[in-house]
Amino acid sequence: MIYLDNAATSFPKPERVYVEMDKCMRQYCANPGRSGHRLALEAGRAIYRTRERLCRLFNIESPMQVVFTSNATEALNLGIKGLLKEGDHVVTTSMEHNSVARPLTALKAKGVSVTYIGCDSKGHLNPRDIERAIKKNTALIIITHASNVTGTLMPVKEVGCIAKERGIPFMLDAAQTAGIYDIDVKDMNIDILAFPGHKGLMGPQGTGGLYISENLDVLQMKEGGTGSRSEELDQPIVVPDRYESGTPNTAGIVGLGEGVGFILERGTAAIRGHEEELTGMLLQGFSQIKGVKIYGPANPRLQAGVVSINIGDGDSGEISYILDRSYGIATRSGLHCSPLAHRTIGTFDQGTVRFSIGYFNTREDIEAAVRAVEEIAAEIV
Amino acid sequence: MIYLDNAATSFPKPERVYVEMDKCMRQYCANPGRSGHRLALEAGRAIYRTRERLCRLFNIESPMQVVFTSNATEALNLGIKGLLKEGDHVVTTSMEHNSVARPLTALKAKGVSVTYIGCDSKGHLNPRDIERAIKKNTALIIITHASNVTGTLMPVKEVGCIAKERGIPFMLDAAQTAGIYDIDVKDMNIDILAFPGHKGLMGPQGTGGLYISENLDVLQMKEGGTGSRSEELDQPIVVPDRYESGTPNTAGIVGLGEGVGFILERGTAAIRGHEEELTGMLLQGFSQIKGVKIYGPANPRLQAGVVSINIGDGDSGEISYILDRSYGIATRSGLHCSPLAHRTIGTFDQGTVRFSIGYFNTREDIEAAVRAVEEIAAEIV
Q1: Which of A232, A238, A350, B151 could pair with B303 as two cysteines, CB 3.0-4.6 Å apart?
Q2: Helix axes B98-108, B72-83, angle to 10 degrees
Q3: Which A-chain residues 179-208 have CB contacts (< 8 A) with chain B?
Q4: Whole-number Å distance between alpha carbons of B378 and B172
Q5: Rounded to the nearest 5°, which phi and psi values hold at A52?
Q6: Contact between B266 and B245 (Cβ < 8 Å)
Q7: Is the confidence metric ipTM above 0.95 for this complex?
Q8: B contact residues 28-67, partner A, Cβ 8 Å cutoff
Q9: What pLDDT digit, counting tens, does each position of B343-355 carry?
């Protein structure tokens, strides 16, 4: 199996992720932050270590500002719904995933209005359009760091500057970039950063998180046992407890810590370098095949390791199926939970076949993918 | 280490839980329900298998009615907030955990009123008190199945009958009982069942779930990518997708499936029998020690495998600390995130030392715990 579906979840993980998760499960997976016995304390320390590593990776000041969630979707819901009130206005883009667009749609019923800035047909955002869309009641600017459909990288730093100048909270959806690109919440003026644990950060599924600037008062989404201030029936406002009711995913967070540890050792430059090289190879290979249409920038420097194509008018689902069945190549077809992005690039009806690259892919994987598409194109075009 | 903190999280787990989780992580942990390639399909099948097993355990009709959450707290928040609207009234008990009491407290600001039925000093609930508290606008009855402080078993069947007769949805918090007691959603007239995956069900942390009767329209708490109806910006209402936005905790759910598989093989009667025997031993042993006060029914047939005590006026935290440090016995002290229950039994200031029994505890563990408490009591009383 050649796995090119890393934008859905990265696979495989570094060996140390498997090893430490299994060790945690077998040796110290007590309930952290609840009881005071040694196993519970060991579990608590392991979770804290993951917070610290995420702080190093994202240049976050305090580990207490890192909130664990079950995935990026939960993090986005928490940030979006916890911040926005009736009468607020949001600026976002036409390249967002449903994990941003659907919570915003749900908030319309509560009197929140949204402006979707149109991106061009390659998914590029003009930051000046963000600026022009700002209203008096704009309470949040939220953009994806890189499209999960085309890989198009967004002008995060420029948008962060605009947000800072105008005093508007800036939220970044780093679903496709955390662990691969340098993300510096201070340098980029990011007030809220949502990230999955199981993609570029190389942790297991069931993990993700949210960085919340200490200047923001974000309402929690869930109340419950926090192990702190147990005597009170009101949810405590101490962070991260306020947002982490209930027993956490200890083994998962431990695995995430190992993934982030792996990234900190290798460095994001090396990781991004590898993915950029393979993305370049894939784009180059596809560009030579008659009948293949590449979406997005088609330039490895301007996009994440995500390449969407179609072959003639072929059904994207069928091509993805052939890639799996006949070539053992895992891709994802259809709309990728991002109908807005597909409308933007003109593929709402056909969808695309998406190849997404991870750190453990090799040049041989890419060569095999190009050969497979060549053969399929020769058949159907 | 003698682990007697199973009410916080069960430890250890059956070997098959560790083995299958590691296998999933290493071999097939793709993104289920998103892509169509063979790894994604294998992950999807594994998740479905867990749903099926939970249906067998709880006598739930369709696997589609089982919603996975990250823990019981999330399940309770989803059920409570998804069902209650402004002007609604809720009947609950004075033995509830903060995972019930805090969401209800938060809803007061939204115009939901709550009646807490007082239980007696052993934690017993009179179901007639539930009936008497019902008002015209009562929209939910929610009780715990067993107190996490005293273990007191609640009259679930009687309350379920009352709820059915009056046409009011009945929600059960099975945090301390799922996997150990027979829970039959039809027989007990349970409309919503919230359960953790990492306690009696023997799965890993980061798992839990909610059964929702098909007759109820529960609003989702999060919107996002579901892998279904991706073209729509409105959250799809198909279940369980409506409630499971974002990538699930695949390896965790696989582990939960193995825990439930283990339970289905052994049978809850055998599991409950073992815990009841050890609970009886522990109660019997403690009852002989001068200065030890036992809370709750002090009768193994009337309580879950949870025994709370104090030794004289000794600080519960200090005693729990001595048990850990000097005897290698893991317990939990304090309020156990249940201040209401501690007020009910009169231990709000002192807290209690809680011993909670799991399937893998042995008679030797219990003997050691009794000896340790004997020695500590001899020192401090």
Answers
A1: B151
A2: 30
A3: 196, 198, 204-208
A4: 41
A5: -60, -45
A6: no
A7: yes
A8: 29-31, 34-40
A9: 999 999 999 999 9
Residues whose CB falls within 8 Å of the CB of residue A189, separated by 6 or more in sequence, listed in order: A160, A161, A163, A164, A170
User: Distances from the Cα of A85 to the Cαs of A43, A298, B111, in angstroms?
Assistant: 37, 39, 18
Cβ neighbour number for residue A185 with a 10 Å cutoff: 21
Residue B359 contacts A, CB cutoff 8 Å? no
Beta-carbon contacts of residue A84 (< 8 Å; ≥ 6 apart): A90, A107, A112, A139, A140
Which pair of tokens denotes residue B369? 């715990």
Q: Where are the domains of chain A?
A: 2-10+267-380, 15-266
* pLDDT recorded at residue A227: 83
Calpha distance B153→B141 (Å, rounded):
17
Do strands B138-144 and B89-93 pair parallel, antiparallel, or not at all (unpaired)? parallel
The pair of structure tokens assigned to B205 is 């942390």
Which residue in A has a C-alpha nearest to residue B326's C-alpha?
A37
Q: What is the pLDDT of residues B162-217, one digit of tens each?
A: 999 999 999 999 999 999 999 999 999 999 999 999 999 999 999 999 999 999 99
- A173 phi/psi in degrees, rounded to 5: -95, 105
> In chain A, which residues have pLDDT < 50?
none
The CA distances from residue B41 to A320, B45, B46, B100, B154, in Å, are 13, 6, 9, 36, 41
Tell if the CB–CB gap between B105 and A223 is shorter than 8 Å: yes
In chain A, % helix, strand, coil (3-state, to 5) comes to 40, 15, 40
8 Å CB contact of A231 and B348:
yes
Contact A176, A7 (CB under 8 A): yes
- What's A371's DSSP letter? H
Among B21, B25, B202, B228, most A C-beta atoms within 10 A, so best to mutate, is B25
Which of A8, A251, A338 comes nearest B204 by C-beta?
A: A251
Q: In this structure, which amino acid lies at residue B337?
A: C
| CB contact set of B349 (below 8 Å; sequence gap of 6+) | none
Q: Going by CATH, does the domain composed of A2-10+267-380 fall within 3.50.50.60?
A: no
d(C-alpha B228, C-alpha B297), whole Å: 49
Q: What architecture is domain A15-266?
A: 3-Layer(aba) Sandwich (3.40)
Q: Smallest Cα–Cα separation from A110: which of A91, A92, A90, A93? A: A90
The secondary structure of residue A28, as a DSSP letter, is: I
CB contact under 8 A, B230 and A98: yes
Q: Which two tokens stand for residue A70?
A: 């079950």
Q: Is B97 helix (H, G, I), strand (E, B) or coil?
A: coil
The neighbour count for residue B132, using CB atoms within 10 Å, is: 11
Cβ neighbours of B45 (radius 10 Å): 11
pLDDT tens readout for residues A201-245 = 999 999 999 999 999 999 999 999 988 888 999 999 999 999 999
As a whole number of Å, the CA-based R_g of chain A is: 21
**How far is B221 from chain A, CA to nearest CA, in Å?**
8
Q: Does B231 touch chain A (CB under 8 A)?
A: yes
Q: How far apart are CA A125 and CA A113, in angstroms?
A: 20
Neighbours of B214 (CB within 10 A): 11
B99 near B72, Cβ under 8 Å?
yes
* CA distances, A183 to each of A157, A192, B354 (Å): 10, 12, 45
